[in-house]
Specification:
Length: about 300
């Protein structure tokens, strides 16, 4: 798909105009009652340079978010960060859609600590399948915060408007983060299966790899049909380590096997593992073990 095929929306006003919605009451934020939208969704791929938090119900058809179809169901909260792509089949029917959407420009948060903090919420970076499944009670709690935001949103703008909206948005995201981490705790069986498959792929890769490029978290995430952010958050919740830390551990263990079990030089070992430059291998090995590869080999003699 060519860049020209995308409809890029830069502002909240452009967003509301594109979807035929009322003009926003605040230049950097809008609250949308999805039950007021009817008809067929516009199938053109959308790239909004905005944040979107939405709870959608009653969709009929297929929505694509990132690389695959998105799993829309009742009680499912979705998060989009600026620059992410969303598109739908031309047959997507939104005539019975309900729920709400909160759309805001990054500039809303620019002068607040939340502007930096929001980048740490993993649910904004997901690109495959993941969303936040909320219970009826959790959904009710989120909607109570949203009603407070709506009350403030509908007030005439003054010197306090943005401060209050950002404070309420931070509460909303705080609850979402709590529910997101709860989701890991309540889906442990599936996550343990994902962990087992990830570890099996690591083992297989390093058993078979020979002068192939260094593996990446992205590579394993795609094979497991999840995003790198989701994979890392899941692993951190279960093991205390990110996907990158797991990958480095497997890499160093394989390096130790090659250093002690073969006659390969340190440089040859680096190339065998996929490093383009041996000094990068030496630097990583020392940072993880406290010894250079040569010193490690010598210490084992």
């Amino acid at each position: 798909m060519k860049p020209a095929d995308f409809q890029v929306l830069h502002t909240v006003t452009e967003y509301t105009r594109y979807y035929g919605l009322p003009a926003p009451a605040h230049p950097l934020l809008t609250l949308i009652n999805l039950s007021e939208i009817s008809g067929q969704a516009i199938p053109a791929p959308i790239v909004a340079q905005l944040y979107t938090i939405a709870l959608k119900r009653g969709l009929k058809g297929t929505v694509y978010y990132g690389r695959q179809t998105y799993d829309f169901h009742d009680g499912l909260l979705t998060f989009l960060a600026p620059g992410q792509v969303v598109m739908a089949d031309a047959s997507l029917d939104i005539s019975e859609m309900s729920g709400w959407a909160l759309v805001f420009h990054p500039d809303l948060l620019r002068k607040y600590p939340l502007g930096q903090k929001i980048t740490g919420y993993g649910f904004f970076s997901y690109q495959v399948h993941e969303a936040l499944h909320v219970s009826a009670k959790e959904e009710s709690l989120l909607e109570s915060v949203l009603r407070s935001m709506q009350h403030e949103y509908e007030q005439p703008l003054d010197a306090f408007s943005q401060d209050l909206l950002v404070a309420q948005l931070e509460v909303l995201l705080g609850y979402a983060n709590r529910f997101y981490h709860r989701q890991f705790l309540t889906r442990r069986l599936a996550e343990h299966d994902l962990l087992s498959r990830f570890e099996a792929q690591l083992t297989t890769h390093f058993a078979q790899a020979s002068n192939s490029p260094l593996p990446t978290v992205q590579q394993f995430a795609e094979a497991l049909h999840v995003s790198p952010a989701y994979l890392s958050d899941m692993l951190r919740a279960l093991t205390g380590q990110t996907a990158q830390q797991h990958l480095h551990h497997a890499l160093i263990e394989r390096a130790k096997q090659l250093l002690l079990g073969t006659s390969l030089t340190v440089n040859e070992t680096a190339f065998q593992l996929g490093f383009d430059y041996p000094h990068y291998f030496t630097r990583l090995f020392k940072s993880k073990t406290g010894l250079t590869p040569a010193a490690f080999r010598f210490s084992a003699q």
